Amino acid sequence: MYPHCDSNVLHAPKECVYCDEHPGDQIFRALSGVNFTGHYDEEKQLCPSERVRPLETIEKWHGNIAMTPQQQAIDDEYWAEFEQQLARETGGHIDPTPTWHTSPVDWHKFYSLPTWRKPLYLFEALVLRRP
Fold first, then answer.
1. Whole-model pTM?
2. Rounded distance, CA 60 to CA 4, Å?
3. What is the pLDDT of residues 22-42, one digit of tens each?
4. Number of Cβ atoms within 10 Å of the Cβ of 95
5. How far apart are CA 54 and CA 24, in angstroms?
């Protein structure tokens, strides 16, 4: 599986920090004669993702865009600010890495809730640690 939301998206080496973590997949794609996402060498097959839809549509979802080191720094700064704001709003009662296997979720209660209430219940149980 490639590192993006669309599992057929694979950027060329040095274009995306996430794809660069999969050098074997990049080498395989290059040796297979398949273009990287966003590349259009006529002698190679089209990127599997771009066979289905154009690059403009693929990149409308943030999780499919090539993550440059500069963009990653911007995203990291955004999420750090988000966590600080959330901690202020919750009085510091935030655990950014909840452990799912020992979660405080009462699954009987969860399944008895209406669908619209389930996400809020999970947020309260896992992040705010409220029963």
1. 0.60
2. 13
3. 999 999 999 999 999 999 999
4. 10
5. 25
Exposed (0-12), middle (13-18) or buried (19+): which is 2, by Cβ within 10 Å? buried
Number of domains in the chain: 2
DSSP assignments along 4-18, one per residue: SSSTT--PPTTT-TT
Q: Which domain holds residue 42?
A: 19-67
Q: How far apart are CA 47 and CA 53, in angstroms?
A: 10
Is 30 within the bounds of a domain? yes
Q: Is 90 helix (H, G, I), strand (E, B) or coil?
A: coil
pLDDT of residue 126 exceeding 80, the answer is no
Instruction: Give percent of the chain with pLDDT exceeding 70.
Output: 87
In a domain, 13, yes or no: no
DSSP 34: B
pLDDT given for residue 45 in this prediction: 96
Give the pLDDT of residue 85: 85
Task: Give me the torsion for CA of 71, 72, 76, 77, rounded to 10°.
Answer: -30
Instruction: Give 45's strand partners.
Output: 34
The answer as to whether 5 is a domain residue is: no
